[in-house]
Amino acid sequence: MLLLDGKKLADELKLEIKQSVDALVAAGKPAPHLAAILVGNDGGSLTYVGHKVKACEQVGFQSTLLHFDENITEEFLLNEVKKLNENPSIHGFIVQLPLPKHIDADKVLMSVDPAKDVDGFHPVNVGKVTLGLPAFVSATPLGITKILERYGIETSGKHCVVIGRSNIVGRPMSILMSGQSKTGNATVTVCHSRTKNLAEVTRQADIIIAALGKPEFLTADMVKDGAVVIDVGTTRVTDPTTKAGWRLKGDVKFDEVSQKCAAITPVPGGVGPMTVVSLLLNTLQAAQE
Length: 289
Ligand code: NAP
Hints:
Rossmann fold
């Protein structure tokens, strides 16, 4: 079994990004500048934004964190987005989700300039990706394609089963896997909560991408021998033996599935670190354009 080590790969990619930043700066250009808008104090969001800011420092990017109170109005937030759209020193920015309920997240995401939308959530970028045109691919799907590419996983002609159809993971992943690219050309089945006989479907898969957010959902009896398994799930489960009182669990029952499959991503240390590094790759691309 091959462990698809996202942490190790992310570290390698960060070194490559750092070299590109050094080359930009040596050519008299500014270092890439990523901004993040965070509204409120959601624990998960604080952690994720913290990882992104730290990753920026590691590769020599500039970063700006705009942290607002959870009671700000939608109008205020839209104006902050407008300011970032118009600020020439910012190459790309993200609006960390979830937003408070009184703010229309779709409206905010649509107000981001697609040329600075390094999360790849704007319909212009989603549409371009769907058409196979150059665009910002959203970070988690981009990270997964990098894992497949760097570990030399053959996807062409393979049957890929994606579990989950969310706009940020399952749906874009299914589009990328079926697209005409080095890590595409697969025959793709998309499963969701209404799928019947899911285990029968997953047992036919050469590649399974589990993105449903149900800890240890995918068990060994749902996987055929020699499949490649990508575990996107990250759910915090209570664990009194850890300092934090919780730990991250993936959507795959790692101990038993890893005995059966050809390659697998761990949780943590698989898709998660690659998501952060993909955001850096998109920001570098924005700065180079
Ligand atoms: P989401 O928006 O909640 O979507 C979950 C999807 O799974 C939905 O399409 C849902 O179907 C489907 N689903 C739920 N239960 C199912 C079942 N029993 N059988 C088949 N399909 C089922 O979640 P998400 O944002 O895509 O995230 C999925 C997981 O990935 C979460 O654990 C999240 O924390 C994690 N994640 C990790 C990263 C990372 O960087 N590692 C990034 C993003 C997300 P319906 O559409 O029918 O409801």
